[in-house]
Amino acid sequence: MILCIRVDESQLVHRSVYLANKIAWAAFTILFVIVLNFFLFRILPGDPARAGVRDPRLTAEAQAAIRTRFGLDKPVINCFTSLNPLEPGDCAVNPLDTQFFIYAGNLLRGEFGISYHTNRPVVEVLGERLWNTLLLIGAGQILAIVLGMALGILAAWKARTPVDYGALGFSLLAWSLPTFWLGIILLFWGSTYLGLPVGGKSTPGINYANTWEELVDLARHLFLPSLTYTIVFLGEYMLIMRSSLVDVLAEDYILTAKAKGLNHFQILKDHALKNAMLPMVTIIALNLGFTVAGAVQIESVFSWPGLGGAIYEAVNRRDYPMLQGAFLLLAVSVIVANLIAELLYGYLDPRVGVE
Amino acid sequence: MMEQATGGYRGVWRRLRRNPMGMIGLAMLVTAIGVALLAPWLSPYDPNAIIRVTILDIYQSPSPAHWLGTDDAGRDVLTNFLYGARVSLTVGFFASFIAVSIGGLLGLSAGFLGGRTEGVLMRFTDIMLVIPDLPLAVVIVALTKPSLTNIILVIGLLGWTGTARLVRAQTMSVKQRKFVLRARAVGAGNRYIMHRHIFPLVLPLMVVNTVLVISLAILNESTLSFLGLGDPATLSWGQMLNYAFTRGAMSAGAWWALIPPGFGIVWVVLACTLLGQGLEQALNPRLLTHHLAADRTLTSHRRLQPAPTSEGATPGNR
Amino acid sequence: MPHAILDRPPLLEVSHLDVDYVDPPHPPAAALRGITFTLQRGEALGIVGESGCGKSTLMLTLLRLLPAAGRIVAGSVRLDGVELLDLDARAMAALRWKRIAMIFQGAMNALNPVRTVGEQIAEAIRRHEDVTNRRALDRRVSELLDLVGIAASRREQYPFQYSGGMRQRAMIAMALACSPDIVIADEPTTALDVMIQAQILQLLADLRRQLQLSILLVTHDLGIVAELCDRVLVMYGGVMAEYADADTIYNGAAHPYTQALLQAFPDPTQPAQKLAAIPGAPPRLTDLPPGCRFTPRCPHVFARCHTAQPPLYAVTPAHQASCFRAETTSGGAHA
Ligand SMILES: Nc1ncnc2c1ncn2[C@@H]1O[C@H](COP(=O)(O)OP(=O)(O)OP(=O)(O)O)[C@@H](O)[C@H]1O
Ligand SMILES: [Mg+2]
Fold first, then answer.
1. Can you tell me whether residue C234 is helix, strand or coil?
2. Cβ(B267)–Cβ(B253) under 8 Å?
3. Which of A158, A167, B196, C19 gets the most CB atoms within 10 Å of its CB?
4. Terminal alpha carbon distance of chain A
5. Residue-by-residue DSSP string for B223-258
């Protein structure tokens, strides 16, 4: 494999420092998101806990349970009884006896609250949905990266020829398409002309004769959403690959490779791609936020039962615990994925952590 | 210095005029702004008029009376489409103004001041960069009253991270230039250097960036509106799509309610993207130096004999 | 010695080479005009001139590695009588490194940062020779590194783990990998400190003797040329100013530019000083003066100098200079 690199021991020390740094930073970011998630919901009008106590969909016992679980009779945090409306309070209370630490404790125990809509624990619902989102993003992302890189390599190699201009035009157009609209158009087309299902992950009420049938049904449901996903991200990955490869191909070591008598294929494969991959990995990592935004839109259009769809449904149903939980889980997933990308970068580039 | 800067801008404009992508983008953007401004004169109907509708008026297909048909409430799609341009562009301009101001300020301070300030600011930027924008925007808008102002604020307040990083990088490189170092050596103050030397050189980059941020803001607005978080008092393209999608345009086969709003978004976003690319190329024109491209041009017509020079300076005796 | 060499058929024969750089709306820039020289087996030819006079352009032309903007508009490059400019791309690729290898200007970036030095050397051998056995290949790489004074154990390291001087040595080892006939060294010692420069040059001199290499050595530095080269080609603004054996250049330069270079650089045995002291700037290729390109800086200008670029005059059969003042001493233009 071109991606494998040998490292000697003196470097391993530096590298473990690099790894430790990245992991600590990711942990800190997650902490920040947790704090943000708490205060956002306390400061802005729609506090899930307080709304829940009044929500007619919940029984009286459930409301009482919420009151104790969130410690609603306790101050929000030291010095503040409430943040919205702003009410200063006692600063000398035991910090563990505030809503913030009760919230943090609940999170640690995996308690995200009860969904107003389904009356089921939010963790449970999100746990199921996380896998669906990963399936959708995985399928779309892999296709988009593979195709995008291939097109990007072609465009860079043939830079400033009609092939390049065509690929560039396509990418700019794909970039400009609102994801949800492309989804709608593809859904309209696929369901009208291809007889594909209009949404969901499986045909409701069907009894599969065997696993194969089940897989086919899943594939038919997955096709349009992941196609949308692929088109939207393909252009972007192509552009990144193209520009980073064009830069690499202008490097001196490519001229060396050429002077050695290597042909274009060998130069691309052995000298250019790995170097061009480095910025690619960084940018894929930086773009994970867009990936999530894409998932929210696609899952909304195709009623795909994932995390993004959960956000859409939670908004429309004013299901605040669900919204809070889904946001937290999405943010944490992005941070973790970002961490993985950074570790991958460290693995790809022998220079990492050395200077 | 100012003299030089204006000369520079003129040069950029000259290169932009020769850049097909940039000019197409500019023309598309000007058209969109024109449509937004002239909407009351271009629209066949008054969008706020109270109309009586029967079941037959809903999702009417295109006809001479309604060129783009009618929507779920029997209103004229063309009219809504033309007025929708106003919402998108308003959000785009104001939100990107906020985002670029914040990002520019943070980037300039971080890059210029360096040290601790820079560390803290960039760490903060990094955190904001990892937190996914759209879900956060959805959460905030869902918790507050969905209004145009809120949408603009949320998009603006969340969209500055890219600008901050870009501006910081540019500021740091400008800071190292000779004339800045020289100005510092003769004792010029921070404010003076920032104002006279650094800002003029960072500004062009910020302009390019603004164009791209506008397109992002417009995409974000349409997405929020589509998700049902739009201002109920104004009808944006995203909201038109939300209504059409959730109120049966698909099953009615009413493509005319689905295509035009999306087309509008693509038009404006593509315009900004093309203009941004064109501006970028006009700001730093680059030769293609890559080594594999060279092989396409090498085999040209070559003379084996030396060219006869003027005035017979090469006497041909061997 | 030079005279004895001259009588054999040359290994490399370059004649009347013209190269342009094009940048479409603008007229092409004349980067090289009428370059003509020969290189014998075992000879070291020094190419000297200020920055931007076209030395690298000339070297890249020989290997047909010019950047996209470069155009070879006229001339011929023959290696053992074979016209390189007429070969198809495959034949040219097969010949690169096998017959002519190149040590690039600024070897800092000439090695791929994410592949080990050993791999990069082995790759050249694998490309041109039928060595498939991994052991044999490793042994060859170790020998080559040993030849340039690098411990074979550092084979597995990446370029960033090497010092500047070691990288340049590795580059030399790589250039020798396929036992080429000609090694082009384009300013092999710029960006290295003085001690390391001397070591690298000594290494080149030793290897040349040991392996009977022909060397084309590009440099700013007349001191280096004096130590290493048999003959010298002085370039100015894309044309040949003077071409002669090293002794003649140092003791009987005919071109005012060569004379100025020597004055700016009084002691050729003291390396590592930069040429800086010639008043005026080299010409811009897009804005050449009418007539001789050196007129704006020449202390001996007369009327004719403004009318045409002087051809190469043979001062003696083995000494050519493109200056009208050389015409009186010669029998006529050489070219
Ligand atoms: N890709 C290119 N496009 C246009 N002009 C070029 C290109 N490469 C080089 N030139 C021009 O050709 C001339 C010769 O350049 P070259 O690199 O051959 O000089 P050099 O003698 O090697 O200089 P140095 O000593 O600095 O390496 C210069 O004026 C340079 O500006
Ligand atoms: Mg050079």
1. strand
2. no
3. C19
4. 26
5. HHIIIIIS-TTS--HHHHHHHHHHTTTTTTT-HHHH
- Is C128 domain-assigned? no
Is the pLDDT at A203 greater than 60, yes or no? yes
The angle, 0 to 180 degrees and rounded to 10, between the axes of the packed helices B77-113 and B115-130 is: 150
Cβ pair A271, A254 in contact under 8 A: yes
Percent of chain C with pLDDT over 90: 48
Atom of ligand 1 nearest to the CA of C238: 14
pLDDT at site A59: 77
Which residue segment(s) compose the domain that A41 sits in?
Answer: 17-108
Q: Do B227 and A29 touch (CB under 8 A)?
A: no
Ligand 1 pocket (Cβ < 6 Å) reads C 21, 29, 31, 49, 51-57, 67, 69, 105, 285
**Token duo for residue A4:** 């494998």
Question: What local confidence, expressed as pLDDT, does residue A10 receive?
Answer: 58
What is the value of pTM for the model shown? 0.82
Q: Which ligand is nearest to the CA of C57?
A: 1
Domain presence at residue A55? yes
Indicate if A151 and A93 belong to the same structural domain. Answer: no
Q: Quick check: is C161 in a domain?
A: no
Q: For a pLDDT cut of 70, what percent of chain A falls above it?
A: 92
What does the alpha-carbon distance between residue B293 and residue A156 come to, in Å, rounded to a whole number?
Answer: 9
Length of chain C: 335
3-class DSSP state for residue B286?
Answer: coil
What digits encode the pLDDT tens for the residues B243-281? 989 887 788 888 888 999 999 999 999 999 999 989 988
- Between the alpha carbon of residue A261 and those of residues C137, C183, C224, the distances in Å are 18, 15, 29
Is the residue at C157 inside a domain?
Answer: no
Residues A149 and A95 in one domain: no
Residue C124 contacts A where some CB pair is shorter than 8 Å: yes
Q: Structural domain tally of chain C?
A: 1
**Residue C126 vs residues A48, A252, A271, B295: alpha-carbon distances, Å:** 67, 21, 15, 23
CA distances from A48 to A37, A126, C216 (A): 11, 17, 78
C245 pairs with which residues across the strands?
C231
Q: How far is CA C308 from CA C50, C103, C281, in A?
A: 22, 36, 20
The predicted pLDDT at position B304 comes to 58
Find the range with the poorest average confidence among A43-47, A165-169, B113-117. A43-47
Cβ-based contacts under 8 A for chains A and B = 163
Does residue A98 sit in helix, strand or coil?
coil
Contact C231, C2 (CB under 8 A): yes
Question: C67–B294: do the CB atoms touch at under 8 Å?
Answer: yes
Pair A96, A143 in one domain: no
For B314, other C-beta atoms within 10 Å of its C-beta total 19
> What DSSP assignment string belongs to B71-99?
-TTS-BHHHHHHHHHHHHHHHHHHHHHHH
State chain A's mean pLDDT as an integer.
Answer: 84
